[in-house]
């Protein structure tokens, strides 16, 4: 199975990338996966050009294909102004709107203080719910003081186990995206109406 880590870290080395790597290693301990890392820092110029000309460059196109064809995703962003970074959001803005439908996603973030830990719930979870991904129940936030603390390892293991379970359970059950049938709302309502006295 293919696991893709999308990291929006900007520095080298990056705590955001480190968290993504630790999460990926934990998933691999639960179920063997092939890991590919997409560093958004390296795609910043192509993402900007995609907004202005409507076409992805070669590296951005390869990253989009990797994300769209993954069996599972780990997405990690640093917290900027109490939300995900602009680079992180921009990448998912230029991704096809149906690319993540039914894909298991583990959300994670890094920040300087624990005050921003709710970014997982008020920013990342709604974004991936909108993209119709299957979001792992446990998100992982790592503040500066969390590195080396016992609690972080526990959250990483729990979230990784949940992602591994979703990947193994959903990979066989997930329908092909073209096979999803949309039933018109009026037809759904008609099916709910009670039958008349004559049975019609």
UniProtKB/TrEMBL annotation:
This is FMN reductase. Keywords: Flavoprotein, FMN, Oxidoreductase. It comes from the Bacteria. Pfam families: FMN_red. Residues 1-147 form the NADPH-dependent FMN reductase-like domain.
């Amino acid at each position: 199975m293919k696991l893709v880590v999308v990291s929006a870290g900007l520095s080298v080395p990056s705590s955001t990338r480190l968290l993504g790597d630790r999460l990926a290693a934990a998933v691999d301990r639960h179920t063997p996966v092939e890991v590919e890392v997409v560093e958004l820092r390296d795609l910043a110029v192509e993402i900007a050009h995609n907004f202005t000309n409507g076409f992805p460059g070669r590296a951005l196109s390869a990253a989009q294909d990797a994300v769209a064809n993954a069996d599972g995703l780990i997405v990690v962003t640093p917290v900027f102004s109490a939300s995900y970074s602009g680079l992180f959001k921009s990448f998912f803005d230029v991704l096809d709107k149906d690319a993540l439908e039914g894909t298991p996603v583990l959300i994670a973030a890094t920040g300087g203080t624990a005050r921003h830990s709710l970014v997982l719930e008020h920013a990342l979870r709604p974004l991936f719910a909108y993209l119709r991904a299957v979001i792992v129940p446990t998100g992982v936030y790592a503040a500066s003081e969390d590195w080396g603390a016992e609690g972080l390892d526990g959250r990483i293991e729990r979230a990784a186990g949940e992602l591994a379970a979703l990947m193994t359970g959903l990979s066989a059950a997930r329908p092909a995206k073209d096979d999803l049938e949309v039933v018109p709302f009026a037809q759904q309502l008609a099916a709910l109406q009670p039958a008349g006295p004559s049975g019609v």
